[in-house]
Write the structure tokens for this entry.
Amino acid sequence: MRADTLHGGGQQDLERRIRGLERRLRKLAVKLSQAEELVDGVTFDLVEIQEGFSATGSMTRPKSDADEKVAEHLAGTGVKKVEIERRNNGSARVRIDELQELDLPPTLTDLLHILCLDTGQSSEDELLVGFKTAAEVRMLLAAKQGRSFSNQAVRNLVWRLREALREGKCNPYLIQTSPTGGYRFALRRKGALVIPQSHV
């Protein structure tokens, strides 16, 4: 048998193995994304249960309807400035109107950045940045994180971001949802989203 025939057969075998490994890698990537989504869902349920217990052991966290309505009303006028100062690990120190500060993990930092962008659905006279559809948020998150997100995963992340704002003594109603299911952060269109150039 000729040497070039043997060489050709070996190369074809190698190419088949490479294609097989690529298929396995794609399948593993899908499973990893599903596992991460499951973790998000379990985390959502766990945090909801844990926070449901107040100091008295009640399953319902006490809230003042009046306080909630005031907070929602104040969020309607939006904020003037959001500064996202990223760290090397992807997390960030966030400053809102140079008055309130909080720390966010990488995924929530990416979500906040997306919701602050002046894109999406809005009219010309709209005071705040436009709403981003769930599909747009999923696409932008996937581009930043390198993995896919379902609508449920986006809803969980939005909930977690609101809770992070609440824990940081910021107004959770700054994360707004449109009647059609879009999301935005209540940043004024003439406001400023500041991100150090080295971390864009």
